Amino acid sequence: MSFEPIIDLSSDEWFMGEALRQARKAFRAEEVPVGAVIVHRKTIIARAHNHVELLKDATAHAEMEAITQAAAALNDWRLNECDLYVTKEPCAMCAGAMVQSRLGRIFYGASDTRSGAAGSALNLLRFLSFNHQCQVKGGVRQEECARLLKEFFQEKRLAAD
């Protein structure tokens, strides 16, 4: 007797898959392929990907746009009961916004050893003197997230030659 695998639509892996969908949209738009979703009570309330090149705005990261959408969806800047899933470890700007918006939990895929602010280069999400700390879990679907970034930058290098 064989059984079909059960798809858990509220698992961390499933939500990261939705963030990966957003990252692929960014890739197709020639943006750095980072995608993010924010979940409130097992429901996605925000979906975003990088728009830095399109908007000519250094702050138009997937995480920043998702935080803005989630705050609008809940009509509150406090996102304590929300989880953010992002395909690449947040930078210092995004990590700061996550703390300021009081996000509960952060899940990321690929680590960023040069500028990741969720534990790789520094950890702003768990900085003890801040009035809020986020729970953090890295490495969710890490290989897929890292592969997408690697492919993007390989294509950019080939195009530049």
Give the biggest sheet: 5 strands, mixed
Q: Identify the overall geometry.
A: globular
Indicate the structural class. Answer: alpha/beta
- Number of beta-strand segments: 5
Structural summary, described in words:
- This protein has a five-stranded mixed beta sheet.
- Helix 1 runs parallel beside helix 5.
- The chain is globular.
- The termini are far apart.
- It is α/β, with parallel strands linked by helices and 161 residues long.
- The model has no long low-confidence stretch (mean pLDDT 94).
- It is built from five helices and five strands; from the N terminus they run αββααβαββα.
Please tag this protein with its features.
161 residues, five-stranded mixed β-sheet, alpha/beta
Provide a brief overview of the structure.
This protein is α/β, with parallel strands linked by helices.
Secondary-structure map with pairings?
Layout (H helix, E strand, L loop, with lengths): L11 H17 L6 E6 L2 E7 L2 H4 L6 H13 L7 E7 L3 H9 L4 E6 L24 E3 L4 H19 L1
Parallel strand pairs: 3-4, 4-5
Antiparallel strand pairs: 1-2, 1-3
